[in-house]
Amino acid sequence: MTIKRHKTRKSRIRCLSIGGSSPIVVESMTTADPHSVSKVVKQVRQLTEAGCGLVRISLPDIESAKLVPRIKDRINVPLMGDIHFDHRIAIEAIDRGIDSIRLNPGNIRRKDKIKLIIDRVKEKNIVVRVGANSGSVDRRKYKRNNADALVKSAMEHVKIFEKEDYRNLIVSLKSSDVKTTIDAYREFSKIRDYPLHIGITEAGTEFSGTIKSSVGLGILLSEGLGDTIRVSLSCDPVKEVYAGYKILRSLGLSGRGIDVISCPTCGRAGINVEKIANAIEQKTMNLEQSLKVAVMGCIVNGPGEAREADIGVAGSSTHAILFKKGQPVKKIDKNRIMPELLKYIEKFQ
Ligand code: SF4
Predict the structure, then answer these.
(1) Whose alpha carbon is nearest atom 8 of ligand 1?
(2) Model confidence over 55-78: pLDDT tens digits?
């Protein structure tokens, strides 16, 4: 299946292109104390190492916005400042060199204050992510928290900027309900061509949130919708980045990373597939090369079933074999499976 990307206009955050035919960006957000430069820098670096293309940082007050230059000096990934309620924080962050901002104009109610922000972003031509999520939809206006309310609410924000002739926007429409999110993005993409940041908001724990996000983002991405993604999980944000790449890779939308495939095992299994596959996945999580590695329980069916893998291992009661593209390469001791596989993975680098 070839996925035809929905046509959106192109935005640029420093050297990062978003939208148009640019590669889909995997985003995440720091959870570190926004008043600690060293903690934020440490986490931004961890996220960058995992492949995060755009890192969002919370800027809850003026003090945190003042730290932007000190953070930027020590990292090399574009930053998006997450700002709510106070227009002065946005202005401070922009003046201090933030690369882009995420803003919810709905919670900065006064139009003259929003106008001050727009004047500033215009000066610097920086990207603003606007939009709606199920928590920010105005319940007095929209009785039902459905896709229609999300789209109308996002459009209100978009129009504030369009009225000032500012279109350097990225738009998001997130609900914690998968179907509502899908419907909202489908509808919005019919009426505007801004790059779309897609995600399921408050998706949940690492397990449930990954499943919800995979279903929601998988459907949207397979329809060509989504220029930048975030898998929101209640866990270490580095895992959000890993999950983002796995989703993209499973649809052929990113080549980054080792794809570990493994059999479900059955009575024929001669090796501990679960343990080896998990260990290989952990050890190769940060590698960028595109490679498919198989861990299969038995030599009877394993190499044949995993013939599309670049390399793999299969077990028997006495030993294991290493295979390439389904063909056995060498017999190995069962205790040497990990080092042998890692040695072959290194050769592909
Ligand atoms: Fe069972 Fe072998 Fe198939 Fe794994 S590869 S499920 S062990 S038959």
Answers:
(1) 301
(2) 999 999 999 999 999 999 999 999
